[in-house]
């Protein structure tokens, strides 16, 4: 699965790129505007984004991603109130600091949710369109 990672902390971004297993093909960037450009020009299965981004907030990035595709969405933040307010936008939330297994589990959950959304959009017995 192809993951777009949007994280402005260079060290954390590098850690996630290196630590996620090979099943996650990570494409990363360090800003919301760059994330939007990537979303418009490439296909991703999951968006993994920090909420506290400069210029374009993570919430805005998630809303734009949702409008473009049925991709899965995982949001990260150290602010529990902000994470709680995003539960309706995201398939999974990850509280910083986090164990890497929590990110892997969140990504897998988001892919499952995206698959269900994609199936619901298709004509036929499952989608009933």
Residue ranges: pLDDT <50 for 5 or more in a row?
A: none
How far apart the termini lie comes to: 27 Å
* Biggest sheet overview: 5 strands, parallel
In which order are the strands of the major sheet placed? 2-1-3-4-5
- β-strand percent reads 15-25%
Rg calculated over all Cα atoms: 14 Å
SSE order, one letter for each helix or strand: EHEHEHEHEH
Number of helices: 5
How would you describe the overall organization of this protein?
The chain has 129 residues and is α/β, with parallel strands linked by helices. Strands 2-1-3-4-5 form a five-stranded parallel sheet. α2 (32-41) packs parallel to α3. The longest helix is centred in the C-terminal third of the chain and has 22 residues, at 100-121. The chain is built from five helices and five strands.
